[in-house]
Design brief:
Blueprint lengths: L29 E4 L4 E4 L8 H4 L6 E2 L4 H10 L4 E5 L5 E6 H8 L2 H5 L1 H4 L4 H4 L11 H4 L9 E3 L4 H11 L3 E5 L5 E6 H11 L4
Parallel strand pairs: 3-4, 6-7
Antiparallel strand pairs: 1-2, 4-5, 7-8
Helix pairs in contact: 2-3
């Protein structure tokens, strides 16, 4: 039967639509994680992983001058630097104190009395006296494993690594070892505080 309006004009026929109503409680599912090579449960409880809080920050290479490394860390207000190779794989994760160590001539580090003999005008410019010294020139001769975590690492794993290595930042890498992002101490603590129960 066709319905009509007040003027006798029939209403246009509408097609019935069937909407699929999602289930109130979807079943717990599992999925394969290509980064870690294992199957893990899909995140449904809001648990954060390293990939969720990692951010893109400036990096340096072994070819960069030490003076550039200092500027990069300073301008970006970083607690340290990640040194990457030509394929963006982390070679070293340097806390800020180690970056500072690269700028201070060895003679002044070994003999504090010598540092006191430098006049005040030069004392402020000591870090620029390293000339063409590169980051690679200042790295340890013995290779040191960089502070890295996988994409699916928990925040506890990140915190444990930072505490063990006393590093204020860690590199987050994908399954190929390529840098995905960086987690700083400040960002980790902020994420932990926001994820915790309200006071």
């Amino acid at each position: 039967m066709t319905r009509t309006g007040r003027e006798g004009v029939p209403f246009p026929r509408t097609r019935e639509r069937h909407f699929r109503i999602p289930a109130a409680h979807a079943p717990d599912t599992k999925r394969h994680c290509p980064e870690s090579g294992r199957t893990r449960r899909a995140r449904r409880d809001g648990v954060m992983q390293a990939r969720d809080i990692a951010v893109k920050l400036p990096t340096v290479t072994v070819q960069d001058p030490v003076t550039r490394a200092v500027r990069v860390m300073t301008l970006a207000r970083l607690p340290g630097l990640i040194v990457v190779d030509d394929d963006s794989r982390p070679r070293m994760v340097l806390p800020g104190t180690q970056v500072l160590r690269m700028t201070v001539p060895g003679a002044y580090q070994e003999d504090p009395a010598l540092a006191r003999t430098v006049d005040e005008a030069r004392a402020d410019l000591f870090w620029q006296e390293q000339g063409d010294l590169t980051v690679g020139d200042c790295l340890p001769r013995q290779p040191v494993k960089p502070a890295t975590v996988a994409l699916d690492a928990t925040l506890l794993e990140v915190a444990a690594l930072m505490a063990r290595l006393r590093s204020p930042l860690v590199a987050v890498v994908d399954h190929a070892g390529v840098l995905f992002g960086t987690i700083t101490l400040d960002r980790l603590l902020t994420s932990l505080a926001l994820a915790g129960p309200d006071d």
